[in-house]
Structure formats: structure tokens, C-alpha cells
């Protein structure tokens, strides 16, 4: 069904060759049917089967997926490293605070996306000629600049605890309960994944993949590398901004201290752990990273207070760091590949059964 | 599309869905809101007769860890003490702590966990105002009271019925500071230097202090804002000396207070320093041993008398804490407030019942742990309404009160 | 008159700050030259170095004269460990992997230290008196400050000499220029690169100890690593001299922004300057221009 092409190695000499499976771009992103099915399944589960606490965690995961999938567009599909995503979330959130006065939730989220997208285009323009570490540093610089801007805004407007976003009502719909928040987040996520699918299926997506595989060759065959780098950064930033604005509404509070470098790194970790440039990778990674603290504390249930609760945050940090290292060294394809390894035999078996009974 | 195509395309989501359903049914059937992740702090005996559960959501790591760990330790000591003396209404208290790592998202997640998983009656230990602001709407929705020592004006004056303060809002401390300074003035007109730290609330406090000083007809010869993380105060001390000030009025926390006073005395100046309540840490004052340093304190010191103080000292020592540690006493009194509420509430006491009980408490007998009245009513959620000024008594090696009760202007 | 005292103050404090930044930058450069990666865990190495000193001097109770070298040895060993476990598996796999691995390393190191030693801040033994000399212009300089500056100068001069004159230094330069050719000449590049990591960790440990003695041993030190990135870029990622100069300029820049604008501006100004630098001259002033192979 798919063509597996082993591209020639484009690494510096002496390195173990990287075997990229270059997907046909149509297959690169999650298909719309799978998106809708997945969202409905999650929604049904959460609605009927989850406790309020798991429901809350699912909402957080959904918002994390929005950011991770967007970052995957830039880092995974276009090969541009970025740890500036917390800055884009902050831009989205702060813009939402301003735009909320004009049109409530929808205006806030939309304006947040547009503003973040514009910043993303600008950053993309600045970083056009930069590669590798220099590119990362430019995104790191963005982080500090945005954090500072947020701090100054809060001081100027006398908001030491940040801004409060009111509980939104999008039309006749009051977003008060976690269930309605989950619906909202899943709708945003579904729209985003469909957009990514459409992008990757078309010329834009092919250009992104070409840039990732071999930037100079892409330029030679006629891809406008500079423009597409800008677009990748801008589109990715816009979606991250939407996610940031949505999450800000959910939390209810916008403060510059939320958007730290650690937050940015956690999103990069989601993409990496899930599998850079894979379909389901960012979603799997987002789920794991978001649920990790809850998982770890659940594992500890039953033991008495003291070591674990005292050191919960250090243990989280340790496991999280080790996970990244292990995934990178052992299975660079991330969770997506691991999962594929598990499900491949089952899928093949199922297919064999079906074939046996006639198709 | 053949069935084979369908199967191979959707195997991953299908498998995930199946796994998720299995996991969800397993989890939701077994948990049902039991306190499986709660950790009993009373140590020895199991909770046979059913126990109250109280939670803390505070910074156990990061730069504010010294505050959070002390608040949690102080509260734990109090509940240990209570549990060892028959509990509240015959029931023990389970105290659960969570670490918010200074992050709003983590704090909110912890709050969800405490309320939904552990089913706490109240949450204590709050430090940062942005975290409090973020959690407050959730606490209101769930009707679980928040007991906090971080009471800047926005939290204290909000019409929320869910936040109970155990601390003085910084911006309201100006009047007692200046009024006390007036008692130290003697004959001539003093020249005042005002030093405060770099936070929104304290910059506002400085403006108020300056106004109050000018209203008394005294000149302000120096105003300084000190960084919250400053590790050196010699520049400020020199500036004070050079300005010719005869008294310093300020709002420095214990660290900065220590650095500043030491630097000031090394520079040869003996002028009195009048400082607000965050400088009222026994350990710091003991180290400075300065009879010209006067701090405003709503809480008692370990060297005071009172049954509560004796219990606090003893409990601290048996759990390996120095009673003079910063914020330890704050944690104890926070727990005391919750305890008083639980006693009135009866058993079981879900958050909503506790809220009603606490707002109807009236005066709480703090057993000498507070230097003034300690009360909650339906109009008054601040708990404390002021304090006394203390200074070091070299001969008795303790802190003595040098003023009567001086209230803040809480109107 | 006022401007003069301001400048004096900036210069004195800036040089002292530069004395802490310089070893960190040097560590970054050395590792970049040998492994071609930007080490996001450099700040964490300062942190572990400081704690190694705390372990030796305060916990075990060694005299300071023994504790400092002991801490350096521990730091060096840690550097070797990091190279063999973490760096050699990911060599050559591109910037994304290298960055994420070093960031993950930073998290692991930070978490491990907190789990072993507890998460509060610690005070360490300071062998230098903190009784300062008040210089004109209200600037106080302590013996510790002097030790930091002199120590940095000595260590970095020694480092430069090692790189230029000793066989090891020649090997490092050969390996960083071309591992293949170095291999032909009989250099065991793995061993050389491993030692550069040990050296880099030890350099960071020096900075970590200096920071801890100067104020307090806490997680604020972790930002040292990212703070010196602009200094290293300015000087060129593979130039030791450039990094040292950059550190000095960074120290001056931080002090001037703190003095004139306030401490909260310093991150913004430094990183804003970095942005501009990346636009105009990403290879810095002393670095070698990278030729991109097609």
C-alpha cells in the first residue's frame, strides 16, 4: 500500500547512517477518518467511563496534543528545531486576554492563533538562514523575549497575579464542566489534525518533507526553501497559539511565569518521545508526558508519606529525562514505532484471517 | 475499500480504544473516589474510625521550597499533636501534601487530585498569589476552602467565600509600622529611610508608608526598592548612612533583613529599624540579637508563654524541626484554623460544610500562638487583624513584646 | 562624576561576573570542538560540580584544600561517564537529538542531585573571608571575588597552553578539525573526546564552586549554562579565546543592564542582542565559518 523508500544518508561522515522511511506525503499525517473516529471514541470513554479526575487529565492531554501536533509539523515534518513553543503559547494566551473583550472565547482563541502565527512568521523570517544549533538558539531567544514582554505587560497593567480569563460561553453553550471542555478541546484538535493532513497531502507538505530530507537539494529542485521555512514556522506557531489560548481559558489564569523554558522542552519531549515526524507520535507523546506525574503518583499509592511526596517533582523530572534519553538511544522512532512493533503482528494476523475468509 | 485495508489502517486507533476501554472500566470500578493515594501522616495507628483528610498544595521544591516545606511541616506537626491527643471529634486527621513546583498547571492538577481523589475537606500551604488566583475558581466550584498565609489585598478583599487567610495583607501594614515608629521617635523630628522589596504589593506598601510618614510631618530622606533575591545589602546600608536617616521603616523578608541589618551595623549605624511581619523569624532575630530592631508579628515566638507555644515547641523538636524556622509557625496556625473548623463541623465534614463552619467560628482560641484576636465571621475572612512589635532582649535571650496589640486597618 | 563611578562599578563587577562565566563558556567550547554539539547541560554540570564540592567539604568534612581538587576529580569522572553513556551513542545524529539528549541530561542531573541531597539550598565552606575591601565608588570587593578572577585567569591560561603545546592539546585540536585525519595519524579519538568531556565538566565545576561560595548553592546556577550561550556565539562556538572575551563582555552587559534598567531586563537585553547577532554574524567574531557540504 505504501512505498518504503530508503533515502541516501545525508549525515556528516563517520556517523551511523540514519534510515528515514520517507512516507508518501499523503500518508504522513493522520487521516481524517481516523481523527474523527479517535475523537469520538475518546469523547465517549470520557463521558461515560472516566472519573472526574481522569476526565480532567484527558482535557489536559487533549490540549497538550494540540501543541505537540503543531510542533511536530515544524520539527518532525520540516526538520526545524524549535524550543520557542512556550513563547507562542504565551503570545496566544496574552492576545486572548485582550481579544476576549471583543468576542469572548472564539475571538480570544482565534486572535491568539493569528497573533502567534504572525510572530511565528517573523521568527521564521529571522531564522531563515540559520541551521542546527543557531536555529535553536534563536528560538531560545524568543522564549526570553516573550517572557520579559509578558512580565512588563503585567507590571504596567498592575496585575501581579496575571490576568483572569472568565468562564467562557461560546454562544448558547456555557463551558463550565470538564465534559464540555473536553468536547471543545477535541474539536480544536480535530480541526488542527485535519488541517495538518490537508497541508501534508499537498504541495506545501511535500516541500516541508523535502526541506527536512535535504535542504540544499530541495533548493536546487525548485523549492522556495526560505518561504517554506517561514510558512512552517508560522503555521505551527499559529496552531500552538490556538492551543495556548484554549488552555489559558481552561486554567482561567494567564501569567508570564507559566510559560517557561521547561514547558517548551516538555512539548519538544512529547514530539521526540512519541516519534519525530510520525503520524500518531505527537499524540502518544503528549499523552505520556502529560499523564506521567499522575501515573507515577498512582504507582506509589499505598506507601506512606515521606519519600515520594516529598520528592515527587524530582522523581518526575528524573523519569522524564531518562525516558527521553532511552527513547533516543534505543528506539529513535519513538513510541509510534514501538507501538507499531506491537500491533504489526496482530494486524497481520487479522488481515490473514480476513483474507482467508475472502474479501 | 477492502476489509483488509480497513483493518490495517485502523488497527492502531482500534487497539488503543480497546485498551483504553479496558483500562477505564478497571480504573473507574476500583477507585470510586477512595483515598488510595493519600498518605497518612499520623504514622502509627491505622484510621479505624474514619478520618478527616486535609491537603496541602505548596512548593516543596524550587526556590520557594524553604517556605513550602516549613508550611507543610508546621501543619503536619499540628495534626500529629492533635491526633496524639484524641483527634478532632474523636477522629484522626490525615494530612496529604503535594508539590506544585511553583507552576500554576501543576498546582491546579494537584488541587484536582486532592479534591477528587483524596476528598480533602480543606487545602492549605498556598504561597504564590498567581497560583491562588488560578485555583480559587476551582475551589469555589467544588466548595473546598483554601486556607492561606498569602493574603495580598486582591485575595483578601475578594468576595469569595472560599479563601480563609492566616496572615496579614502586606499593603495594610503601613499604619502600625509608622505608628510604632512614632513611639520610638523621642524628641526631635526623625528622618526616615524606607526600604521595601521588589514585588507589586510592596511597592504599593512603600507608597503608603511614605504617605503616612509625611502625614506625620516627618521627612523621607531615602526610598529604596530591594531585589527579592538580593544576596548583598551593603549598598543599601551605605545609602542609608549617607542619607543621614535616623530611622528605617521597611518591609524586608528575613534574608534581606539579616543582610541589611548586619551591613548597617557594620557601617557603624545604630539607628532603629522597624520591619514588617515577614522579618519576624525567630532564627534570624536570634542571630542578629539586635535590641534596635523591631519587628511586627501576628504570631507568638517560641520563647513566649502559652500552652499552644509549649505544644508547638515540643512538637517541633520531636519531629526534628527548629521551632524558630521561618514559616513553621505559620503552618501550625493554618492547621489550627482548619482544626477549629473541623471541630465545629462534626464528622464527616466535606468542604462545603467546612466552609459554613469556618465562617461561623467567631473567635478561635489560639492558645497563645497569635498575638491578637484570631477570628472568622461571615464578613471577616482575614483571620488575623494585627500584631505586636517585638525586639530582642539580650539578657533574657528571647524576644519581648514592646508594644500592645496594634491592628491593621482592615476596613 | 556619576557616570565615571557607574563605569567603574560596571567594570569591576563585570570582570568578577565574567570570572564565573568564563570557565562555563570554555567548557562549552571544548565540548563543541570535540563533539560538535551545543551542550544544554553545561549549567547542570556547574550544579553537580558545586554539589561535589559541598559533598567533600561539608558532608565528608575534608579541608578545603583537598575538597576542591576532589570535587574536580568527581566532576571529571562524571564527564567521562556522560560521554560513554550518553554522548557516544548519539554522535552524528543531528542537532535535534543532541539538544534533546543534553536537555534530558540536565533534567536527570538536577533530579539526581535533589534526590540525593534534598531540594533545599545549601551553604558551602568559603575559605576566603567575606570581609570586603571598599573601593572608591562604593564598590565592595571581597577576597573571594579576587580569587575568582585570578583563578579563572590562571585556569584558562593553563587551558590555552595545554591546547597549544601539549600532545593532548594537539590531539584535541586534530580531532576537532578532522576526526578522520586524526585517526590516520594514530589518535584514539574516542579517548581524546572522552577527556574533553571530563575537562569540560571540571571547568563547570570550578564555576559552580565559585558561584556557591559567592552566594548559595541552589538551582539558580542551572541558568548559567543558557546565560553564556550568547557569549559563546559572540566569540564563535569553536574559539576558546572568543568565548573568554565573550564572557567578559557578557559580565559587563549584565552589570550595565542591572544598573541602568533593573535586574529583570538582563535576560531580555542579552537574548535580544543574541537574536541580532544571529541575524548579522552567527559565526561570531573568532569562530571558523562553517562550510555546508552539499
Task: Give a quick summary of the entry.
The complex is a heterotrimer of chains A (359), B (411) and C (294). By secondary structure, chain A is mainly alpha-helical.
Quick one: biggest sheet of chain C?
A: 2 strands, antiparallel
Query: What spatial order of strands do you see in the largest sheet of chain C?
Result: 1-2
**Topology order of chain A in helix (H) and strand (E) letters:** EEHHHHHEEEHHHHEHHHHH
Task: State the major sheet of chain A.
Answer: 2 strands, antiparallel
SS class of chain C = mainly alpha
Unreliable stretches covering 5 or more consecutive residues of chain A? 1-21
Helix run count of chain A: 14
What key attributes describe this structure?
heterotrimer, A: 359 residues, mainly alpha, 3% strand, C: 294 residues, ABC transporter involved in vitamin B12 uptake, BtuC, two-stranded antiparallel sheet, 74% helix
Protein model, in words:
The complex is a heterotrimer of chains A (359), B (411) and C (294). With 359 residues, chain A is mainly alpha-helical. Chain A has helices spanning 25-28, 32-48, 52-77, 85-126, 132-156, 178-201, 203-213, 215-220, 225-251, 261-274, 281-299, 307-310, 312-330, 334-356; strands spanning 5-6, 21-22, 163-164, 169-170, 173-174, 253-254. Chain A has a two-stranded antiparallel ribbon with strand order 1-2. In chain B, a hairpin with a 2-residue loop joins strand 12 (374-377) and strand 13. The termini of chain B are far apart. Chain C has a single domain (2-280), classed as ABC transporter involved in vitamin B12 uptake, BtuC (Orthogonal Bundle). Chain C contains twelve helices and two strands. Chains in contact: A-B, A-C, B-C. The interface between A and B is large, with 62 and 62 residues.
Topology:
The complex is a heterotrimer of chains A (359), B (411) and C (294).
Chain A: E1 5-6, E2 21-22, H1 25-28, H2 32-48, H3 52-77, H4 85-126, H5 132-156, E3 163-164, E4 169-170, E5 173-174, H6 178-201, H7 203-213, H8 215-220, H9 225-251, E6 253-254, H10 261-274, H11 281-299, H12 307-310, H13 312-330, H14 334-356
Antiparallel strand pairs in A: 1-2, 3-6, 4-5
Chain B: H1 3-30, E1 52-58, H2 65-84, E2 93-99, H3 104-117, E3 123-126, H4 129-142, E4 146-148, H5 153-156, E5 163-165, H6 174-183, E6 192-197, H7 200-215, E7 220-226, H8 234-243, E8 247-251, H9 254-266, E9 273-275, H10 282-288, E10 293-297, H11 307-318, H12 328-345, H13 351-359, E11 362-363, E12 374-377, E13 380-384, E14 386-393, E15 398-401, E16 406-407
Parallel strand pairs in B: 1-2, 1-3, 3-4, 4-5, 6-7, 6-8, 8-9, 9-10
Antiparallel strand pairs in B: 10-14, 11-12, 12-13, 14-15, 14-16
Helix pairs in contact in B: 2-11, 2-12, 3-4, 6-7, 8-9, 9-10, 12-13
Chain C: H1 2-35, H2 42-60, H3 64-90, H4 95-117, E1 133-135, E2 139-141, H5 143-165, H6 167-177, H7 179-184, H8 189-214, H9 223-227, H10 229-235, H11 240-260, H12 266-280
Antiparallel strand pairs in C: 1-2
Helix pairs in contact in C: 1-5, 1-6, 1-8, 1-11, 2-3, 2-4, 2-8, 3-8, 5-6, 6-8, 10-11, 11-12
Amino acid at each position: 500500500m505504501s512505498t518504503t523508500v530508503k533515502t541516501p544518508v545525508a549525515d556528516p561522515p563517520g556517523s551511523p547512517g540514519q534510515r528515514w522511511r520517507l512516507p508518501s506525503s499523503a500518508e504522513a499525517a493522520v487521516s481524517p477518518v481516523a481523527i474523527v473516529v479517535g475523537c469520538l471514541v475518546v469523547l465517549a470513554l470520557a463521558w461515560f467511563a472516566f472519573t472526574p479526575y481522569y476526565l480532567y487529565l484527558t482535557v489536559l492531554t487533549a490540549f497538550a496534543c494540540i501543541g505537540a501536533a503543531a510542533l511536530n509539523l515544524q520539527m518532525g515534518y520540516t526538520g526545524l528545531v524549535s524550543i520557542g513553543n512556550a513563547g507562542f503559547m504565551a503570545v496566544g494566551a496574552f492576545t486572548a486576554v485582550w481579544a476576549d473583550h471583543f468576542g469572548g472565547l472564539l475571538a480570544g482563541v482565534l486572535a491568539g492563533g493569528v497573533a502567534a502565527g504572525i510572530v511565528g512568521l517573523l521568527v521564521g523570517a529571522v531564522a531563515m538562514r540559520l541551521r542546527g544549533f543557531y536555529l535553536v538558539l534563536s528560538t531560545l531567544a524568543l522564549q526570553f523575549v516573550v517572557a520579559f514582554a509578558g512580565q512588563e505587560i503585567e507590571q504596567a497593567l498592575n496585575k501581579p497575579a496575571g490576568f483572569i480569563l472568565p468562564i467562557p460561553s461560546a454562544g448558547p453553550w456555557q463551558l463550565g464542566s470538564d465534559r464540555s471542555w473536553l468536547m471543545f478541546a477535541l474539536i480544536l484538535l480535530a480541526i488542527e489534525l485535519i488541517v495538518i493532513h490537508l497541508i501534508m497531502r499537498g504541495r506545501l507538505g511535500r516541500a516541508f518533507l523535502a526541506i527536512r530530507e535535504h535542504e540544499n537539494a530541495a533548493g536546487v529542485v525548485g523549492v522556495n526553501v526560505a518561504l517554506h521555512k517561514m510558512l512552517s514556522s508560522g503555521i505551527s506557531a499559529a496552531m500552538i497559539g490556538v492551543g495556548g489560548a484554549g488552555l489559558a481559558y481552561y486554567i482561567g489564569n494567564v501569567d508570564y511565569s507559566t510559560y517557561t523554558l521547561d514547558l517548551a522542552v516538555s512539548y519538544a519531549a512529547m514530539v521526540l518521545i512519541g516519534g519525530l515526524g510520525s503520524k500518531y507520535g505527537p499524540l502518544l507523546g503528549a499523552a505520556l508526558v502529560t499523564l506521567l506525574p499522575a501515573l507515577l503518583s498512582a504507582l506509589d499509592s499505598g506507601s506512606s508519606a515521606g519519600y515520594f511526596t516529598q520528592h515527587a517533582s524530582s522523581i518526575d523530572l528524573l523519569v522524564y529525562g531518562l525516558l527521553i534519553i532511552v527513547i533516543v538511544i534505543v528506539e529513535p522512532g519513538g513510541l509510534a514505532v514501538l507501538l507499531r512493533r506491537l500491533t504489526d503482528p496482530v494486524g497481520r494476523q487479522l488481515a490473514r484471517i480476513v483474507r482467508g475468509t475472502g474479501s | 475499500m477492502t476489509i483488509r485495508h480497513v483493518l490495517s489502517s485502523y488497527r492502531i486507533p482500534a487497539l488503543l480504544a480497546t485498551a483504553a476501554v479496558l483500562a477505564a472500566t478497571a480504573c473507574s470500578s476500583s477507585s470510586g473516589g477512595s483515598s488510595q493515594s493519600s498518605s497518612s501522616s499520623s504514622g502509627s495507628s491505622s484510621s479505624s474510625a474514619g478520618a478527616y483528610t486535609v491537603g496541602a498544595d505548596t512548593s516543596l521544591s524550587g526556590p520557594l521550597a524553604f517556605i513550602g516545606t516549613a508550611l507543610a511541616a508546621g501543619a503536619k506537626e499540628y495534626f500529629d499533636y492533635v491526633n496524639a491527643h484524641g483527634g478532632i471529634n474523636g477522629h484522626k486527621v490525615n494530612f496529604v501534601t503535594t508539590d506544585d513546583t511553583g507552576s500554576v498547571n501543576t498546582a491546579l492538577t494537584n488541587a484536582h487530585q486532592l479534591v477528587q481523589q483524596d476528598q480533602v475537606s480543606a487545602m492549605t500551604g498556598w504561597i504564590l498569589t498567581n497560583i491562588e488566583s488560578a485555583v480559587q475558581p476551582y475551589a469555589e466550584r467544588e466548595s473546598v476552602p483554601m486556607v492561606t498565609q498569602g493574603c495580598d489585598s486582591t485575595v483578601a478583599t475578594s468576595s469569595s467565600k472560599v479563601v480563609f487567610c492566616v496572615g496579614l495583607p502586606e499593603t495594610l501594614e503601613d499604619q502600625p509600622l509608622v505608628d510604632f515608629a512614632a513611639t520610638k521617635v523621642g524628641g526631635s523630628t526623625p528622618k526616615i529611610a524606607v526600604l521595601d522589596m521588589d514585588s507589586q504589593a510592596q511597592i504599593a506598601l512603600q507608597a503608603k508608608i511614605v504617605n503616612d510618614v509625611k502625614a506625620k510631618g516627618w521627612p523621607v530622606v531615602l526610598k529604596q526598592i530591594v531585589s527579592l533575591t538580593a544576596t548583598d545589602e551593603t549598598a543599601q546600608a551605605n545609602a542609608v548612612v549617607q542619607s543621614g536617616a535616623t530611622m528605617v521603616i521597611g518591609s524586608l523578608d528575613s534574608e534581606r533583613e539579616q543582610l541589611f541589618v548586619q551591613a548597617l551595623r557594620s557601617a557603624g549605624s545604630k539607628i532603629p529599624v522597624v520591619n514588617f511581619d515577614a522579618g519576624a523569624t525567630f532564627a534570624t532575630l536570634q542571630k542578629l540579637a539586635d535590641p534596635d530592631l523591631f519587628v511586627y508579628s501576628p504570631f507568638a515566638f517560641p520563647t513566649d508563654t502559652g500552652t499552644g507555644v509549649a505544644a508547638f515547641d515540643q512538637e517541633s523538636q520531636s519531629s526534628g524541626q527548629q521551632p524558630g524556622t521561618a514559616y513553621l509557625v505559620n503552618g501550625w496556625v493554618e492547621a489550627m484554623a482548619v482544626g477549629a473548623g473541623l471541630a465545629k463541623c462534626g464528622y464527616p465534614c466535606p468542604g462545603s460544610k467546612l466552609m459554613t463552619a469556618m465562617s461561623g467560628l467567631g473567635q478561635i482560641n489560639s492558645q497563645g500562638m497569635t498575638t491578637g484576636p484570631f477570628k472568622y465571621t461571615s464578613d471577616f475572612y482575614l483571620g488575623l487583624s494585627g500584631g505586636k512589635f517585638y525586639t530582642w532582649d539580650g539578657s533574657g535571650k528571647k524576644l519581648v513584646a514592646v508594644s500592645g496589640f496594634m491592628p491593621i486597618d482592615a476596613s | 562624576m556619576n557616570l565615571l563611578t557607574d563605569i567603574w562599578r560596571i567594570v569591576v563587577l563585570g570582570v568578577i561576573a565574567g570570572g564565573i562565566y568564563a570557565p562555563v563558556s570554555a567548557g562549552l567550547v571544548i565540548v563543541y570542538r570535540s563533539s560538535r554539539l551545543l551542550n544544554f547541560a553545561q549549567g547542570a554540570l556547574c550544579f553537580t560540580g558545586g554539589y561535589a564540592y559541598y559533598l567533600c567539604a561539608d558532608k565528608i568534612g575534608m579541608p578545603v584544600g583537598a575538597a576542591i581538587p576532589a570535587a574536580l576529580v568527581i566532576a571529571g569522572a562524571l564527564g567521562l561517564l556522560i560521554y560513554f553513556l550518553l554522548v557516544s551513542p548519539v554522535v552524528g545524529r543531528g542537532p535535534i537529538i543532541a539538544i534533546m539528549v543534553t536537555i534530558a541530561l540536565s533534567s536527570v542531573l538536577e533530579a539526581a542531585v535533589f534526590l540525593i541531597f534534598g531540594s533545599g539550598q545549601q551553604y558551602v565552606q568559603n575559605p576566603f573571608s567575606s570581609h570586603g575591601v571598599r573601593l572608591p565608588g562604593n564598590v565592595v570587593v571581597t577576597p573571594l571575588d579576587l580569587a575568582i578572577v585570578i583563578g579563572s585567569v590562571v585556569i584558562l591560561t593553563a587551558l590555552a597552553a595545554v591546547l597549544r603545546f601539549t600532545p593532548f592539546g594537539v590531539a584535541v585540536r586534530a580531532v576537532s578539525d578532522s576526526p578522520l585525519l586524526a585517526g590516520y595519524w594514530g589518535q584514539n579519538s574516542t579517548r581524546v573526546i572522552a577527556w574533553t568531556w571530563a575537562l569540560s565538566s571540571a571547568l563547570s565545576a570550578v564555576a559552580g564552586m565559585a558561584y556557591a561560595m559567592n552566594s548559595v548553592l541552589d538551582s539558580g546556577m542551572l541558568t548559567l549554562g543558557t546565560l553564556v550561550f550568547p557569549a559563546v556565539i559572540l566569540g564563535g562556538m569553536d574559539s576558546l579565546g572568543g568565548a573568554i572575551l565573550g564572557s567578559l563582555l557578557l559580565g559587563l552587559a549584565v552589570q550595565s543592564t542591572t544598573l541602568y534598567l533593573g535586574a529583570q531586563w538582563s535576560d531580555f537585553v542579552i537574548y535580544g542582542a543574541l537574536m541580532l547577532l544571529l541575524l548579522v554574524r552567527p559565526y561570531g567574531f573568532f569562530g571558523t565559518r562553517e562550510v555546508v557540504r552539499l
